[in-house]
Amino acid sequence: MGLLDFFKKGEEKKVEPLKQQTAPIQPKPSAPTSSVPTSQEYTIKSGDSLSKIAKQFYGDASKWSVIHMANKDIIKDPNLIHPNQKIKIPNL
Amino acid sequence: MKNLFKPLIIIITSLFLLASCGEKKSESPSEILAGTGSKAWQISKQLDSQGDKEKVSSEVKDETLNLYSNGKFSIVDASGTATGMWSVVGSEKLSLHFDGENVTENFTITELKNDKVALTAGDGSAMILKTK
After folding, report:
1. Does domain B29-131 have CATH number 2.40.128.280?
2. Would the ipTM clear 0.85, i.e. be above it?
3. Mutate: best of A13, A15, A22, partner B, most B CBs <10 A
C-alpha cells in the first residue's frame, strides 16, 4: 500500500468550502480544476540540471526531487540528464 | 528609602527577564507538519486495520508527501503526482482535499513531532511518516 492508496481511504466528508487553517484562500483559475494539467513537459537543454530546472519552475532548487520522482522511468541517475530529453514537470 | 528602590527594580527586572527566557513558543500542528515553507514526508512504517505491520517496499519508501505551508500538498509516486489542499481540523485531524474530488479524506493524528507523524485512516489502518 502506497501513500496515495492510504490517503484515499480516510474518513470521507463531503466538501463544504474547505477552511484552510494555515493559508489565505488562493484565487482560483477561471478554468475548471479538472482541465488543469497536473504536469507540463520540458525539453532538457545543454547545461541544465534538475536543481536548475526546479529553481526555474518552482523558484526552489531543493525541489529537484519532485521532478526526479516524476521522471524515474527516464532519469535513473538525477546527476545525469541529457539534452533533448523530454521530462514532466509536476505542478506543486 | 531611595537606597532600597534601585536594588528592588534590578531584582524585579532580572526575574522578569529570567521568566521570559524560559518561555518557548509552541508550534501549531500545521507549523509542525509543513514548517515555514514545506516539509517532505516519507513512509516509515504502516499497519493494517488489525494493527499488523505491513511490509513497505523500497519503491513505496521513495514516495513523498509534500506539505506546503500555503495549504497545498502533493503526493509524488512512481505513477505521477496528485495534488490538493490540506488542513488540520481541531488539532487532531489531518484533512486532505484532492484536486477534482468533492470529498475530503480525514485522518486522525495520533502522534505529532517535528520529524514524525502517525496517522490513522477510517478503516483503522495506520501510517507513520518521517521527514525526508
Report:
1. yes
2. no
3. A22
